[in-house]
Fold this protein.
Amino acid sequence: MLLINPALTLAAQVAMSVQPVPALGYWEGAIHLPGADLAIQINLLRVNDRELQGYISIPAQMLKDSKLEDIVVNLPEISFRMSGRIPGNPTFKGRVEGDAIKGDFTQGGYSFAFDLKYVGEAKPIVEASLPKGIAERYITVGKSPWELPGTLTLPEGNGPFPAVVLVHGSGPNDRDERIGDSHTFRDIAWGLAEKGIAALRYDKRTFVHGAKCAEQKNLTLNDETVDDAVLAVKLASQIQEINSGKVFVIGHSLGGYALGRIAESATGAAGFVSLAGAARPLEDLIQEQFSSKGLPENDMKKVNESVAKVKSKDLTADTSELTFGVPASYWLDLRGYDPVASLARAKRPVLILQGEADIQVTMTDFALWKKGLSKAEHKSFPKLNHLFMPVEGKSTGMEYYAAGQSVDASVIQTIAAWIKAH
């Protein structure tokens, strides 16, 4: 039973003594799972006098040099955590014993022993760097209490440039829409900037203000996604280097589903690009996703019961139980919302893109977009998954976490050509 998702990115900052740390170096070992050992490699190195960085590689899962987070060294104890939106908060806690580290790995309530052996000095890591000729600066979307940090990526030259605002998929995404070692929005922003198009991306509200969002009893899609996207479009149109009449919105997954809502308020947006946007009710999509995983009968029964609750006439704003992690207000707000028909009413240019190997939002959705938005432009890409990255064979979602991936160049070229044509 393999519990680890192949995405373990960890950047670590920890206050510590400037004395040598015996834990620094390159370590090899294994997590002892039932019936098999999962080989791992840990690389711990110093950034400066007060910071450590850590990276993990899992060859069996095609994971290489993924950053670690929350590295704490209090000798002989050491701990670090895997991130990249991996479920179950996978964490290592151990003790340094000479040239060995031994301890427990935990994830989602399960615990397994692990051990590491010191191999040698830490290996230098080369991080992705900003392509030559483009520039970035920090920006802030919105105001207190919901301000969101973001990044503006600008092409070489003085502009004014056409621009895109990138709107996230579901879950607490950062501005790069990072999942493991995949950085979908960073790839798109850098790729478009190299083609003369600016990009504004920002950390999602549920990423920055997760605790406050969880306290909202009347949370809706507008709160989660739409309102901030509209503010980002307005901000982009006010930036000197950007052509205010050429600001486009790119929505990925849930962001694509929300484009109709965004279009209603972002009247200044020049057009919209859906990347694997859902065209069906979200609860139906969730049901299909769980069904395709082959869940045990009892687990699938619970999913079906939750879908029935979402659709039930008995669901009211006073229903206290969370369904699929969100309050009743979220589902009630979406009743009657048709993402395809809503975007069609915007009467602005639309581009619909879909990976044919996508198992989260499928070609069924793509067909619905084509039928309901016949005047839009549509294109699907063979062998690309939900992140618009190449996959060999059937996508499982595990490949999202593998190192060395990027959004396929043909997708970025398609978006760039479409924007320049409009």
Remarks:
- The longest strand covers residues 36-48.
- The two ends are 50 Å apart (CA to CA).
